[in-house]
Amino acid sequence: MADLVIRNLHATIAGTDTEILKGIDLEMSRGEIHAIMGPNGSGKSTLSHVLMGHPGYEVTAGEVTFMGEDLLELEADERSRAGLFLSFQYPFAVPGVTVANFIRMAVNAHRKGGPDGEDDPIRIPEFRKQLQEAMELLAIDKSMSSRSLNDGFSGGEKKRFEILQMAMLKPKIAILDETDSGLDIDALRIVSGGINQLVGPDMGALIITHYQRILDHVKPDRIHVLMDGRIVRSGGPELAYELETSGYAGITEEVSA
Amino acid sequence: MSPWLAERRDLAAQSNALLPVPTLTDEHWRFTSLRGIDFDAFQPVAAPAPGEIAGAILADGDHAGRVVVRDGGAVVDELSEAVTAQGVAFGSIRRLAEERPELVEPLLGTIVGYDEKFAAENGALWTDGVLLHVPAGVRVAEPFHVAYEIATEGAAQQWRALIVVEEGAEATIVEEHLTGLPGYANGVAEVVVGAAGHLTYVVVQDRGDAALHFAAHRAEIAKDGLLDWVACSTGARTGKTRMETRLTGEGATGRLSGVYVVDDKRHLDLDTTQEHDAPNAVSDLAFKGVLLDEARSVWRGVIRVAAGAQGTDSYQENRNLLLSPKARADSIPGLEIDTNDVRCTHGATAGPVDPMLRFYLMSRGVPEAEANRVIVEGFLEEALERIPDERIRTALTEHVMRRIPS
What distance in Å separates the CA atoms of residue B224 and residue B168, rounded to the nearest whole number? Predict the structure, then answer.
């Protein structure tokens, strides 16, 4: 069984009948890179939020298993500690909490994850060393670690700090929601380099994007095209180039034909 | 009692006799009802025996001087020899009004007048409190510490403070209103910052959950003077604190920082002014509050810019986090501007913890209760980080966070 298995997933905006996801099926495991591509409004961000447990959506049908567990039964914090990660399209500012303190809190929450919930906080020198290495990997200036997380950061800086958190939390599956948006070409190269270094036998990535730009740097094994809440096509990396030439309109015709 | 002091008390008593207890129809009391409070039930009590104070958060460490006012009088009245040698006067104001009248007589009652009910009552009835007088050019590194405590149930504590930092002088004074026993506290603090003087004034109000706390603090800042004023409120059943700043000299600066956590059915009323009477002065007020249970806060803040105070730079904000659907925070900002060429901005908000921000924290593995605490601490941190002294900042952060359930 794959690490992440999504079967016939339906979801609405909480408290409404507005269905955004209309039956998603997808399987992936560590060591794999999958990309979900689709036009604006197709449900890409909703899928990433629903998988992470966003309170603004309601799952109305289907199932999701993650590492053999029923993901939908877990709270967002439990999903994270189980090894799922979401790099937000629009990360939140956390005023008054420094980057270093925020990440240390998250790391310690993960280390508490045992059945007894016992405390095993990371030693500060060890944490500093890990954080510094991860910041170097992403070419983030050291002085940034004492600033309030995302508070007054540029769009591109926020994305780098999402990947920094991913590097520190070492998830099993990371969902990267429009991580390339807001990055200039140099930043894209650095962030992609970081992602490539982190993906491996212990980590897989689900890249959500509506341009193939990031896919020039992070090579996907599989590409899925999401339209109107459904995956309408899946294929190998060549699908990205097909989309680039014919656009989503070409796919639409194929679906309706 | 000196004739000048008796005369002043008499003047205040006359005013007190004429002023009625405020009601909801008075503009400044619209949200704070005093109905049902029997003020006559609280009686003055002489100072009981000395003894250690309990529950102070900033009493440890080295101090330039210490005063503890218990019920009606000072039971600790100490000033270090080194600071005495610098020419600083500090201690019980009842004692110093007799011993050093030249420091008290010219100012007492001139900054906070007798035209308001509680200030008038205090002017007539105050029993003890503190005088701090730092002469021109003298800098005192260690803080002064003052504690007020009601140790007899039902006592009325009428405290009085006069704090003067002369030209070019520098000092820090910490004033703690301890939990103590239920009673009625009414106080007046008059504060003068001389030209290019620098005063840090930290007030912690942690009176007991049945206590009544009324206070009028008013400061005047001369040319190029700096007042760093920090107010932290976590206590009392009900009451009202006036915190007024008048910038009398060009280039004066007032940094006014407030943090409050109000729980249970407590009612906290804060009334602030930023009065610009001179050009090119700066005042910057940031008050942040957290409301729990059925607690309620009222903040009324007015920026007044007099004619001729051009180049004024004034800011005020009051932000409130409501952690319970039954909690309530009212903010009433106001601007009264009589000149051109000024920059005055204000903002006020009240709302619950942002569920999306909480989701963001939880998506990193942080459990919900901890996520809420982190959001609260981060919210208050924006006001707490303005406190210049790290030891005070840390102690106040721990103090307010103890009030947030985990």
Answer: 9
Domain of residue B258, residue span? 3-355
| Distance, CA of B262 to CA of B386 (rounded, Å) | 21
* pLDDT (0 to 100) of residue A115: 57
Average predicted confidence (pLDDT) for chain A: 92
**Within a domain: B385:** no
- pLDDT tens for B193-226 read 999 999 999 999 999 999 999 999 999 999 999 9
Give the C-alpha separation, B213 to B150, whole Å: 11
Chain B CB contacts of A88 below 8 Å: 360, 363
Q: What is the pLDDT of residues A82-124, one digit of tens each?
A: 999 999 999 999 988 999 999 999 999 999 855 565 678 899 9
**B383 is a domain residue:** no
Residue A169: closest CA among chain B residues belongs to which residue? B364
For the complex shown, is ipTM > 0.90?
yes
Domains of chain A (ranges plus CATH)? 4-256 (3.40.50.300)
Tally A–B CB contacts below 8 A.
78
Token representation of residue B299: 């903040």
Taking 90 as the threshold, does the pLDDT of residue A196 lie above it? yes
Domains of chain B: total: 1
Identify the residue whose tokens are 């459904």: A230
Q: Domain for residue B404, yes or no?
A: no
A7: closest CA among A69, A94, A65?
A65
In a domain, B297, yes or no: yes
A235 DSSP 8-state letter: E
> CB distance from B401 to chain A under 8 Å?
no
